[in-house]
Amino acid sequence: MPGLKAAFKGAVSFLGGFKESRKDIIFIITAGLFTILIFFIPTGFEGSAVQTNALRARARVVHVNNDQLKIIGPVRQGVQQMDVKILSGGFKGQVFQSSNHLMGKMELDKVFLEGDIALAVLSVNDDGKIAHVQVIDHYRTNKTVFLAAGFIAAMILIMGWMGIKTLVSFAFAIAALVRILYPMILRGWDPVAAAVLITLLITALTLFLVGGLSKKALGAFLGAAGGILITSVLAFIFTSWFKIHGAVRPFTETLLFTGFGHLNLPRLFIAGLFIAASGAMTDLAMDVSAAMDEIKKQQPAVTRFGLMRSGFTVARQASGTMTTTLLLAYSAEYTAMIMVFIAQGVPLENVINMVWVSSEIVHTLVGSFGLVLVAPLTVFFCGMLLSVKNQKT
Description:
12 helices; Multidrug efflux transporter AcrB transmembrane fold; five-stranded antiparallel beta sheet; 5 strands; globular; CATH 2.40.50; alpha+beta
């Protein structure tokens, strides 16, 4: 087995070393298995939008007839008549007719050209023949897999072992949101309470994966958790004060008309606000905690006050850039809306009193407010935890 042992050592060296303790290794493996398990948890809504006797298949658009389309600039309205050739499944190679209805709304419509690959739903009769073919949208599954594979490869090649741990936390966050949090809210859980619970769980797993089961990770978690809780309170206060009704996100209102009229949209908006900010808070908390831990390792004699002072110096500079990061990340989502207001010369006071803009102001400033508070909280908790053996100030 010498060859296998040498290969293992070479892989470990390539990944940047293997410095985890036994308890950290057990935690990483457990987190990975737990993440996989969550992906298999049924949401309870799997069959709600699936037609009986319906099959999904890839299809190539072989012919397009746009005679029934009304084209006004970039907007198209009417019906595209198409012939599509099935590329997968039991009906592979057969050609069927399909209609693509366009409403004149570019954010919802999809336009096909000859040669495009699409995802099609085939409605099958009781006798096993195709009754209807509906083209859903352009086929992007293979492209998504390619992009995800490239991302995973880059994480491992560039970040090594840390990249693997980051991928576990990344996958866990997706699983926790899609398989746990969102179904909980749809079933009637309070959006804010459910979001706080799941966000804290994601934050804890991320920080303890990256920082190990250590005082450094614990201090970062306590700081980030404090920021998340404060942000949730601030979001509740200012959403109510600004009278944000909550229906300011795409498809939010659609939920009410698809059997989920019980949803509290303002509280759903609040939940989304601090979920969006929690990532930056987690990032800042770990940056500050890691810096303070390194200072303590390099200067074991440093006093608690000295460690906190150095940590706060790092925290102020890190939070100074992170708040701008939040602003840029949030504002990019509404670039077109802002450009419309500028192009039409809408007065600034009119703009800031519109609910869409007010919601983004609350989103950005409350998230940044919570981010700023994470810094001193993390400094305090890390100072207390990392200086346990040195009580001098």
